[in-house]
# Entry
Amino acid sequence: MTLIAPTLQAFFTDRLVQQRQASPRTIAGYRDALRLLLTFVHARTGKLPAQLDWDDLDATTISAFLTHLETERHNSTRTRNVRLTAIRSLFSYAALRHPEHALLIQRVLAIPPKRFDKRIVTFLTATEIDALIAAPDQTRWEGRRDRALMLLAVQTGLRVSELTGLNCADITLGTGANVRCEGKGRKQRAVPLTGPVQALLRVWLTERAGNPDDPLFPTRTGRRLSRDAVALRVSTHVATAALRCPSLEGKKIHPHVMRHSCAMSLLQAGVDTSVIALWLGHAGVRSTDAYVHADMSIKEKALALTTPAYAKPGRYRPTDKVLAFLEGL
# Structure
């Protein structure tokens, strides 16, 4: 019988912090997943997390926990797979420290991720983008801030965490104007700025009047905007923009849609997917393939290049009874 607690603590302090130097967001994600797991096991067994041993976390229990996430917490399949990734990372670390539990650990590591439907990405057209950018009330300080934030997001494709993490010093105007940010995997990148975005940011930086290390888009009290705050501001402005642009009604618009819209505008302009991947900070070109699938204009151009097939209308009808049976299945 080996308690889990010492290995769990070493997993965070030794593996994630010291060896992998994981980002605070990664550590928080793993923490939440394992906290949910321990709470679930405590509810089933009555044992406190500090009293659990590895036999309490066998493959059957882990599978039951994953089912609990989907059926009772109503998590998506993608979220379920993310939780499983955190659990598998802990068990991979435990395999080196507890060879006596090798069989149990191997069975947990054999639990596969669940397949899920990949939806076509949602993006905004040029008309919808113009309506959204014009929605904030320019007579209010928050409205001028939100307009600068959304225009920067649409032109650069920055993630929400990258936008909220920007400081005033991260903006370079004039010759070689760009914005510098740190994305996933601690990858730093610089994205060029267009003339209209430069002009709006120049006015905003003058009004903002912050120090180089101050957040570029703060709250009224000077703190950084949270992800939820940005999502709330975007949904509010979408509702306003929908009055002018009816095509926005019924669309589920969230901050990441502005990133999708940036990628689609680059793709439709003929920019190579490898350049788009660098622009957005993707780990590889495959992440950019989703935009190719969503762009109907590229498929229409490909269809126009093909020779139309001519065939008589009708349905194939087999003459053999067995074939007819199989055809009817």
Summary: DSSP finds 15 helices and three strands in the chain. The two ends are 55 Å apart (CA to CA).
